[in-house]
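Think of the structure tokens as a kind of shorthand, similar to the way a musician reads notation: each symbol stands for something richer, in this case the local conformation of the backbone. In the example below we present two proteins back to back. Begin with the first one, reading the sequence and then the tokens, and try to describe in your own words what changes along the chain.
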Amino acid sequence: MAKLAAGEQIHLSESVRVRKDGTPFLAAVTVWPVRDENGAVVAAAATERDVTEENTARERSARADRMESLGQLAGGVAHDFNNLLAIIMNYADFLTEEVTGDAADDLARIRNAADRAKSLTSQLLLFAKREPTQVEVIDLNQAVIEADELLGRTIGENIRLVSRPAREPLPVRANRGRLDQILLNLVINARDAMPDGGVVSVETDLVELDEGPSATLPPGSYARLTVCDNGCGMTAEVRDRLFEPFFTTKPADRGTGLGLATVYGIVGDAGGAIGVESAPGDGTTFRILLPSAATAAHAKTGPAPDEIGHGDGRLIMVVEDDDFVSDLVVRVLQNNGYRATTLGEHSLADVDIHGISLLLADVVLRGRSGPVLAARLRARRPDLPVLFMSGYSDVEVRREHGIDAATPILQKPFTAVELLAGVDAALSSVAVVQHAKGV
């Protein structure tokens, strides 16, 4: 009150109020002094302003910032881990050709674990929106109808699955496999929230979004997928962390904490949004909005690799700052008829650029850039074939490093077969161009 007496306004903490119809709202209260004709403070007046939408928008923005930071961390971890996986997978394959008996069985288990780890990094990249997707126009209704039988078998006899697709088709641009992944993750989570049985409903409909302070997506038409259960629900604290990677309330042997993080990444990559409503004892409802096919963006994918050829003694320069990955690549190439050298063995000025059949370079190098290095070498030899390697997605590295669509990128972690296919495709495309020019 001292501030009021001194003539200052007071902004009280935001607090929950209740409207006449019983619905709660968040109010911001401002109190200011009332003066008499002599300027003395004799009373106080207050106003309340409904700031519910503003607060919701702030919370949503803060959550989006936090998820973006987690996505950058997850993408960086996945990128580095892909290098390690390439080493594990390929050296396990090398040894498999040389051992038998129990040792071969042990190696098979190592290889299987590496494949599972590769799947986990793929999920992390999905959460980080760094995994490329091949999309097509899909009727969301049809996807729900076709998934109904599989989901019904998955959730068990004590759970009733109810599907309510919209009457009209709901075309969206999406990857069918990842759309099925969304449905499976959400329905499995609903099942786990109802250990004593219950009902899971899957519904679709069309909604129109308008502009507004709390809007998370541009205005327009969206297909909405709603998955609702009458299970145990969750607290606000759990709800706020639900999409964070590796966050889970399940026992260690029942979940990795990547399911909903993956869903979050898939939906965001498709230009949509996901929201959740839940409270302890009141069940959980997930609502996913996906842009209609008319407004969704097209995703670009690269061509499939050609059949693998033989090296025939052609020289390939390998530029990779992870020595273990570099050694691995050189070994695979040399074992398949290529000659291989690394830039570390030469200074850039000393490289006999005309003797190189292909430059095979990582995109992100310590203290330098693969595309910049390629540009410097191509300044001396414009027709130098280039194949890049990267642990990030094709779309991301092309955008951030200015790599044109004609230059192929080999995704890590790769097997020996995938490496050789990429090299062969890069060399074959050059041969086709040269033939067309009559070289």
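Once you have a description of the first chain, move to the second and do the same.
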Amino acid sequence: MNGKPVLYRDAKTVLNVNNNAFKEKLLCGGVILNLGDACAYSCSFCYVGSMLRFHAPPVLSAYTLTHGVTLPFQKVVIRRQNAIDRLRAQLLDRKGRRRYSDDDDARVVFSSTTVDVAANMELLRETAEACNMILQHTGWHIRLLSKSNLLHLLVANEMIPSKYHHRLIFGFSTGTLHDNVAKAIESGSATVSKRLESLHWLQDNDFRTFGMICPSLPQDDYDSFSSDICAAIRVEKCEHVWAEPLNVRGESLSRTLAALRAAGLNAEANNLAAVSGAGKGKAWEDYARMTFLAHTKNIEPGKLRFLQYIDTGTAGWWGERRRLGAVLLGKTAKAKLLTAV
């Protein structure tokens, strides 16, 4: 699939209804849907492998024993065995009755925190089947995020019936407007220009959309970057806009630097190297603050949701800017009661 071997994990669930981490990011009402664990795309900044340090290794080890080849997490696709059956069992009891029967329960489901929901047509069809099941058996709304230009086909081709369209919210990762940069650090995904075409089609046809300016690299001119990217995603047509600098977990920073160098994008690599400190230090903090402040000039406070992990030294500055759209995360944010929920 997308040039990678497909592995399967016998997961017990595909739906998590008590996910506080993504609820704190305001991406959902605590409900997340993950039909797989390792993506068909290969983004240098992906940190999902470090999140699945208990689940993924046994699957990779089994592949090594069978094939005699050792592959890293980024080189495989991991899907959850019988994902749709698992979802059905979570939504319905043994007598076929709805477990979430309140039609006024309009919590938002977010998909996905681990894999792209539309990386190819097979995965898109699986996404459609899962969404239809959720929409039929709950009152929930669904927020879908992708780096693919196939996502709009869910509604353009009526893969999800029109009676449910008002409960769908579509978004595309657009941390850069430059196709060459995206190609370097988001291997296998659609070009940013193609993603924007899909986004604009949805907006032109009055579908609900959201912005996802994540992750964005250090810039020479933050104001111009924000102005250009906000115009490109049509902020005025987005319900909300999330934004975030590079999230440093696992080897995301070193892999991103290496990918930029390999693509000959030395200016971008040098800018990232200049602020690097494993996500810490003054230069990195300045990068986050300048990105945030630039976005506040183009995205109104009620719409901007800038994700930022804080520590005791930075809590004061960021805490004062929650009213402008800063969404604060991490242990310090929780201890100081600065999280959004």
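Compare your description with these statements about the second chain. The two ends are 38 Å apart (CA to CA).
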